[in-house]
Amino acid sequence: MSVSTVADIIVVRNPNVTVDARVTDLITLATQDIGSVFGSKTNDAIALLVLHWIALDARAGGFAPGAIKSEKEGDLARSFGGSGSKTLTDLDSTSWGLQLKRLRNALIFSARDRTI
């Protein structure tokens, strides 16, 4: 099996994921978020971001408007935090996100101030 497409990478990294229409849509969204800054590792980065989103989805029981900050059982009251948008800012919350951060840090050099 040749692992060249994002869908192939997703299935190899997590065999429990079935590439269906929803995952294909997530791949499209992740492609827009990732861009081309990862060079030859772009497909890996896209796959990691999709797996990160899938893990967040599984944890929340669906894409929620943010993490549940508090919950009350009687007369059901919930408060959510965060914006609910799938961004690159919440990568610390899953192992897939941490892998994406490591890949990003290894490949993308940020601007630095010169100090003497």
Shape estimate: flat
* Number of distinct beta strands: 2
Helical fraction equals 40-55%
Spatial strand arrangement across the major sheet: 1-2
What count of helical segments does DSSP give?
Answer: 4
Give the percentage of residues in beta strands: 5-15%
How far the N terminus sits from the C terminus, by CA atoms, comes to 52 Å
Helix-strand topology string: HHHEEH
Q: Assembly state here? A: single chain
Helix-strand makeup class:
mainly alpha
Spans of at least 5 consecutive residues with low confidence: 83-88
Q: Calculate the mean pLDDT score and round it.
A: 80
The largest sheet is:
2 strands, antiparallel
What count of domains describes the coordinates? 1
The Rg value, from CA coordinates, equals 17 Å
Written description of the protein model:
With 116 residues, the protein is mostly helical. It has one domain (6-107). The protein has 4 helices and 2 strands; from the N terminus they run αααββα. The chain has helices at 6-13, 21-34, 42-60, 95-107, and strands spanning 68-72, 77-80. A two-stranded antiparallel ribbon has the order 1-2. Strand 1 and strand 2 (77-80) form a beta hairpin. Helix 2 packs across helix 3 (42-60). The protein starts with 5 loop residues before the first helix and ends in a 9-residue tail after the last helix. Residues 83-88 have low confidence and may be disordered.
